């Protein structure tokens, strides 16, 4: 009976790439790569804990990038989708990429390639939505704060956008679903974790956390939003298609709608 090798990593992307390196090094045809703390090994599975090694991770990254620049993007985006058994699917994808029969990152006749591309596109769309839908509110600590709750783990993908766009103000973007955030202090962006007692969604009631001027600005924006809306031309179906309702609780202009 052939044993099944389970590689357990720390959940980071570099940890995953290290596990891929080990899988290739051990010539594993099938590698069951799982996050630490979420291990579900079979009865006869052999388990090995993988310690993140930046050098090994970089070698995998460079190898994939040399094969295809679009493939490396697809791999990273698909990894951030957090789908079940994603690591095993990505391992097979990288195997195909490194194999002599690889036909390209857009060979949609290959089911594995099709799934990775599809997930990468979904994550890409969520990235663009977050870049458009994040709404900062000024706290009394003079830090601009925003909650988000994306379908996928897109914080690493939106960091550069907001650092460039809001380079002159300190801000925090916090993912309440994954319980971590980004903090920009006018110089660097750091990953942080907060002990939030309240999730700051839209409310007609004022919070003591934010400044009075912040609420005055929101009222001004909401009044402008309503005054420029032509009721006879409202297309609710199209509007919801572009701005799904699941985002409304974090959009200041939707305060009266939630």
First-residue to last-residue Cα separation: 57 Å
**Beta-strand residue percentage:** 5-15%
Overall outline: globular
Query: Considering DSSP H and I runs of 4 or more, what fraction of the residues is helical?
Result: 40-55%
Count of domains = 2
| Mean residue pLDDT | 83
Q: Which sequence of SSEs, written as H and E, runs from N to C?
A: EHEEHHHHEEHEEEHH
Radius of gyration from the alpha-carbon trace, in angstroms: 22 Å
How many helical stretches? 8
Low-pLDDT residue spans = none
Number of β-strand runs: 8
Strands in their spatial order, largest beta sheet:
4-5-6-7-8
Largest sheet: 5 strands, mixed
Structural class: alpha/beta
Organism: marine sediment metagenome
Domain DUF4130: 86-253
Pfam families: DUF4130
InterPro entries: DNA_repair_put, DUF4130
Written account of the structure:
The radius of gyration is 22 Å and the shape is globular. Helix 1 crosses helix 2, helix 3 packs across helix 5 (111-133) and helix 5 runs parallel beside helix 6. It folds into two domains: 5-124, no CATH class; 134-254, no CATH class. It is built from eight helices and eight strands, in the order E-H-E-E-H-H-H-H-E-E-H-E-E-E-H-H. A five-stranded mixed beta sheet has the order 4-5-6-7-8, covered by helices on one side. Strands 2-1-3 form a three-stranded parallel beta sheet. By secondary structure, the chain is of the alpha/beta class. A hairpin with a 4-residue loop joins strand 6 (171-175) and strand 7. 42% of the residues lie in helices and 14% in strands.
């Amino acid at each position: 009976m052939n044993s099944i090798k389970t590689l357990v990593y720390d959940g980071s992307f570099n940890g995953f790439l290290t596990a891929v390196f080990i899988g290739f090094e051990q010539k594993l045809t099938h590698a069951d790569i799982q996050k630490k703390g979420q291990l579900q090994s079979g009865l006869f599975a052999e388990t090995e804990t993988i310690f993140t090694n930046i050098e090994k991770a970089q070698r995998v990254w460079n190898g994939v990038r040399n094969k295809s620049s679009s493939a490396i993007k697809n791999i990273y985006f698909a990894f951030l989708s957090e789908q079940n058994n994603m690591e095993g699917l990505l391992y097979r994808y990288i195997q195909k990429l490194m194999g002599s029969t690889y036909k390209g990152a857009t060979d949609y006749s290959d089911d594995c390639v099709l799934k990775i591309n599809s997930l990468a596109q979904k994550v890409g769309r969520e990235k663009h939505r977050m870049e458009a839908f994040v709404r900062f509110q000024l706290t009394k600590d003079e830090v601009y704060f925003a909650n988000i709750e994306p379908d996928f783990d897109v914080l690493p993908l939106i960091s550069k956008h907001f650092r460039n766009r809001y380079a002159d103000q300190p801000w925090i973007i916090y993912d309440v679903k994954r319980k971590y955030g980004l903090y920009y202090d006018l110089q660097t962006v750091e990953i942080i974790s907060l002990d939030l007692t309240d999730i700051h969604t839209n409310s007609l009631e004022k919070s003591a956390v934010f400044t009075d001027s912040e609420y005055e600005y929101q009222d001004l924006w909401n009044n402008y939003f309503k005054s420029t809306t032509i009721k006879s031309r409202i297309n609710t179906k199209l509007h919801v298609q572009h701005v799904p309702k699941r985002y409304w609780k974090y959009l200041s202009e939707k305060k009266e709608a939630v």
